From TrEMBL:
Organism ancestry: Bacteria, Pseudomonadati, Pseudomonadota, Gammaproteobacteria, Pseudomonadales
Residue ranges of domain Alcohol dehydrogenase-like C-terminal in the record: 184-301
Domain Alcohol dehydrogenase-like N-terminal intervals: 25-139
An example Gene Ontology molecular-function term: metal ion binding
Top-rank taxon: Bacteria
Name of the molecule in the record: Alcohol dehydrogenase
Keyword Cytoplasm: no
Pfam families: ADH_N, ADH_zinc_N
C-alpha cells in the first residue's frame, strides 16, 4: 500500500509500505476515502514543530472499514466511519474521564499523522490500522456527505467543543473568534452560531478568512488596533500570534472564558494580571474528539454548519502533494469517486 510520508522538512512523497495487519481482535483495518488537511499539517510538513520527519502525515479522514477483529461489534466491512485523530482504548481510567488524549493503554501521545507514541501511520495513507475499533470509530449516518465530515476527526470537532462548551455557561453569549490558522477560526464562527451565541465578532488580518467569516454571519468590522474593552463572554483563540491572543484575552468580560486552540510551540507572554482582574479563565489542550463526533455529524447533516466552505480544494492522490505544501486553504484528498453514505 502507499503511505503519504513527510520524508524531510518541506518534502512529501508517496512511499510503498507493507499493508497493516489486524493485530488485535478489537481492531480494524480501514481505507481512508476522504482525508482532510489539519491546520497543523503544513507546519508539520515544513518541520516547524517538535515532530521531525520521516513520518506518515494525516489525522483527519472518513474511511471505509475493510476488515474487523472478532470482538468488534459496532462496525463491519463496508461501513463508512470517522476516524478520530487520537489512538485511545475507551476503557482506561483516563478514557473513562473523557481524556482520550491521555489514554494509558497506549504510549503517551499516540496519534495518527505524527511521530509520537509509536508509529500509527497517517490518514492520507491507503490503509490504516485502528487498534480499538468500537471505542474509536464513528459510523456515518445514512445520507452523510463524507467530504463534509472528513474533518470531524479533529478541526471540525475541536471548533465545536471550543465554542460550545463556554457558550453553554452564558446566556446570550457575546463571542469573539480570533482567527489565524486555515480553517479553525471560520469553523469556530459557524459553531458559535450553532451553539446559540447572540453575537459573533471575528478578528483576523487575513482578508480571505475575514470574507469567509462574514459569509458565516460574523461581524468582521473590528478595528485593527482598537481596544476590545471587555466586550466578550467567550473568546475562541484559533491563532498562533501572541499579540492577537492577548487582544482576545483582554477583550474578555469579567467571568469570561477563552478557549485557546491555536497551537503555540513557544510559550507566549500572556496578560495574567489583566486576566486576574477580570476573573477570567482560559483552557488549552488537544481536543478529546470522540464523544463529540456524533453531535458534529448531526450539525453538518442538519446544515447548522458548512465545513465545505473552508475546504475549497478537492484533490486526488497526485495533486495532494502540492495542495498540502502550498500555503493556501485547507484541502480534502479523495481516493475515489465519492457518494453520500449509502442506505444499509
Ligand atoms: Zn490536527
Ligand atoms: Zn484509554
Amino acid at each position: 500500500m502507499q503511505e503519504l510520508m513527510v520524508t524531510a522538512p518541506g518534502k512529501l512523497a508517496w512511499i510503498d509500505s507493507p499493508s497493516p495487519h489486524l493485530a488485535s481482535p478489537d481492531g480494524a483495518i480501514v481505507r481512508p476515502i476522504a482525508s482532510a488537511s489539519c491546520d497543523l499539517d503544513r507546519r508539520l510538513i515544513a518541520g516547524a514543530t517538535p515532530f521531525k520527519p520521516p513520518f506518515a502525515i494525516g489525522h483527519e479522514c472518513v474511511a471505509e472499514v475493510l476488515q474487523t477483529g472478532e470482538n468488534v461489534r459496532s462496525v463491519q466491512p463496508g461501513d463508512l466511519i470517522c476516524v478520530p485523530w487520537k489512538i485511545a482504548c475507551g476503557q482506561c481510567a483516563q478514557c473513562a474521564r473523557g481524556l482520550s488524549t491521555a489514554c494509558t493503554a497506549v504510549q503517551k501521545y499516540a496519534a495518527y499523522g505524527v511521530p509520537a507514541g509509536g508509529h500509527w501511520g497517517g490518514l492520507f495513507s491507503e490503509e490504516v490500522y485502528v487498534p480499538y475499533a468500537d471505542a474509536m470509530l464513528v459510523p456515518l449516518p445514512v445520507g452523510t456527505n463524507p467530504l463534509a465530515v472528513a474533518s470531524a476527526s479533529d478541526n471540525l470537532t475541536d471548533a465545536w467543543v471550543a465554542a460550545s462548551t463556554p457558550i453553554k455557561r452564558h446566556t446570550d453569549a457575546r463571542v469573539l473568534v480570533v482567527g489565524g490558522t486555515e480553517s479553525l477560526g471560520v469553523l469556530a464562527v459557524q459553531m458559535a452560531r450553532a451553539a446559540g451565541a447572540s453575537q459573533v465578532d471575528y478578528l483576523d488580518t487575513d482578508d480571505y478568512r475575514r470574507a469567509m467569516a462574514e459569509l458565516c454571519g460574523a461581524n468582521v468590522e473590528i478595528g485593527a488596533h482598537s481596544t476590545l474593552d471587555e466586550r466578550y463572554d467567550v473568546v475562541v483563540a484559533a491563532t498562533r500570534d501572541e499579540q492577537a491572543l492577548n487582544r482576545g484575552l483582554l477583550g474578555l468580560a469579567p467571568g469570561g472564558h477563552c478557549s485557546c486552540i491555536g497551537i503555540m510551540f513557544e510559550p507566549p507572554r500572556i496578560p495574567l494580571f489583566g486576566m486576574y482582574m477580570r476573573n477570567v479563565t482560559m483552557s488549552v489542550g488537544a481536543c478529546n474528539v470522540r464523544p463529540h463526533i456524533p453531535k458534529v455529524l448531526d450539525l453538518v447533516n442538519s446544515k447548522q454548519c458548512d465545513p465545505m466552505l473552508v475546504c475549497p480544494q478537492i484533490v486526488d492522490c497526485d495533486d495532494a502533494l502540492q495542495a498540502l505544501i502550498q500555503p493556501t486553504a485547507k484541502c480534502i484528498m479523495v481516493r475515489e469517486r465519492i457518494t453520500t453514505s449509502p442506505q444499509t
